[in-house]
Amino acid sequence: MRKKRLGVIGVGSAGILALTHFCTWLGNDWDIVSIHNPKKPILGIGESTNGGFVGLLEKGTHFALGHKEDLKELDATLKFGSRFKNWREQSWLNPLLDGNTAIHFNSFNFKDFAYKRLHKHWPEKFKVIEGDVKSLDSYPHKVVVDVDGRKEEFDWVIDCMGYPKDLSSYVQSNCTPVNRCIIHNMKDYDLEYETDHIATPHGWMFGVPLISRKTYGYLFNDNYTTVEEATENMKEILGVDEVDGKEYLFNCYYTPKMIEGRVCKCGNKALFFEPLVANSIFLYILGVRMFFDHIMENVPAADLNARYVQAIQEMEDVISYYYQGGSIYESKFWDYATKMTRERLQHRMHFKNLWNQYSHLKSQGALHYGPTYAFAPLTWEIVDDQLGYDSFRSPGGPKLKNVETVASA
Ligand SMILES: Cc1cc2nc3c(=O)[nH]c(=O)nc-3n(C[C@H](O)[C@H](O)[C@H](O)COP(=O)(O)OP(=O)(O)OC[C@H]3O[C@@H](n4cnc5c(N)ncnc54)[C@H](O)[C@@H]3O)c2cc1C
């Protein structure tokens, strides 16, 4: 009998997690084929995760948090949450979006780590094709991928080829006030099992600890802060004379059609958000689970696309929600950040309704029956308390610094 074929194009974080998911959940009547061009590098940033990522690795690659050699292979450290500093007078450990233990991992080690294990654990189904994808055409009963002039046919394909060249069919997101990031790596640092989220006068800075290095990313908005100002502030915070200075300029966007024909977009091909609370990999995992439901359970693409857009918009609300309460800094950036995120949330009826629902359920002692909205009701309760919003007792929306409620902001 002919084996069914699923192609996954790209071996960045998105491609590898898609391969791992489908090797785990599709049977030996499938070939799961990894296609990539070794001459095209991965983006190589995005190394903080949430609990679902560990669950995925455990099943697909037999990764175990307790195995030091597994952590070493991935250059990984444990993560229990995100440490918020300077957003309020007190610092706090923000819970993970899901699960209770995650990892920081070296994205440059991810492919070799996973390939070895996928070959070992799923030898009947895991296959590799190296080459450049020249075209990808979806037909009613197959997908044809041109790899260096050779036509490969698949039943389904997951496109993880990184940033889209053209964003005209994507939705531009206005959930975040930052648009630029400067990177610095440090070899000597004190390890804590958390991702730093340090507010600065110009935005915030992440710190992702690996065994071999800690990577800092200084996020700001270049309409309010020059690269020189950001660099100076980053040097001052880190106590260094120079920073590596690699830069990422970004738009935030998402596709309204994750699944089109027989092709599913994943990773930066599907969406890009700034890295607050490591939301991206969390959303990629959700996307591949939905694609599985389409392939195996015949859930219509239109329904899944609508649900994915809803999940993405919930994540946009999460991002805006953190910014709207400001930080300890009075600055042009924070003035802009709080205003634009409050204004955005004003128009999010789903978000307002959530607080009405949560407040009601909380008053009944039944909060855990509430809906998941990007994350679970308990996580919302903890985060809301940490941010000092008190939203559960002000159903019109969170109470903010100098402002009664979002509704009157
Ligand atoms: C500053 C910054 C910090 C971030 N931090 C986090 C974080 O902490 N946590 C998080 O979850 N996310 C984070 N992100 C998001 C991060 O961008 C993604 O998690 C990650 O880069 C996803 O990459 P990808 O797999 O989609 O694409 P890429 O890494 O770009 O991989 C693309 C792949 O496609 C292949 N390819 C491309 N074209 C072809 C072709 N024609 N033929 C064959 N192969 C091809 C390439 O060889 C490559 O393997 C961050 C992003 C930025 C900018």
Structure description:
With about 400 residues, the chain is an alpha+beta fold. It contains 10 helices and 21 strands. The chain has helices spanning about 15-25, 50-60, 70-75, 105-120, 225-240, 280-295, 300-325, 330-345, 350-365, 375-385; strands at about 5-10, 30-35, 75-80, 80-85, 90-95, 100-105, 125-130, 135-140, 145, 150-155, 155-160, 170, 180-185, 195-200, 205-210, 215-220, 245-250, 255, 260, 265, 270. A 7-stranded mixed sheet has the order 5-4-14-15-16-13-17, with helices on both faces. A hairpin with a 2-residue loop joins strand 9 and strand 10. Helix 1 crosses helix 2 (about 50-60), helix 1 runs parallel beside helix 6 (about 280-295) and helix 6 (about 280-295) runs antiparallel to helix 7 (about 300-325). It is globular and about 65 Å long. It starts with a strand and ends in a 22-residue tail after the last helix. The structure holds flavin-adenine dinucleotide. Flavin-adenine dinucleotide binds next to helix 1 and helix 6. Flavin-adenine dinucleotide binds near residues 10, 36, 43 and 275.
